[in-house]
Amino acid sequence: MTRLAGPVPVLVLAMLAVVWVLGVRESEAAGAPRRAGAYWNALSREQRTDLVLGIFDGFNLNENILGITLKNEYTICSDIMESIMRQSDAYFADMPAGRIVTALDTFYGERKNRNIPISWGVWVVVRKNRNDPTLPEFLDELRNLYP
Question: Cα 88 vs. chain centroid, distance in angstroms?
Fold first, then answer.
């Protein structure tokens, strides 16, 4: 039997270790619960409110990062970004965290919505509040994507 000497066996072992770690991480992620209806329904009211507030924090961070980047690097995009921010603000007007939580409770109370991720659920309930005429079609698409 021939033994390989030098850096080749070490490199092969290192590559196998990386593949194994990635495989374990992927299988852990696959087994992790999706943040959808069952996850939502298992949370307390306080945890649901914290989750929605975290989504708001994410929106603010995203707007700040994009705003700074676009204004510093792409001045032509500033007007577009400001328009997007105004439109987002309009959709979330009159939708404080508590109202979104209550709306999501109702949304995830319907069995056919249970697999739709919470991030999309938020978008559904704010669009519903704005009487968005395209919501039924959008919701059908989500239900098809997340049966």
Answer: 16
HEC-encoded secondary structure of the chain: CCCCCCHHHHHHHHHHHHHHHHHHHHHHHHHCCCCCHHHHHHCCHHHHHHHHHHHHHHHHHHHHHHHHHHHHHCHHHHHHHHHHHHHHHHHHCCCCHHHHHHHHHHHHHCHHHCCCCHHHHHHHHHHHHCCCCCHHHHHHHHHHHCC
Q: Work out the average pLDDT over 103-122.
A: 96
- The predicted pLDDT at position 46 comes to 97
d(Cα 104, Cα 33) in Å, to the nearest integer? Answer: 18
Q: For the chain, first and last CA: distance in Å?
A: 54
- Residue type at 39? Y
What confidence tens digit (pLDDT) does each residue in 40-94 have?
A: 999 999 999 999 999 988 888 877 777 777 666 666 666 777 777 787 778 788 8
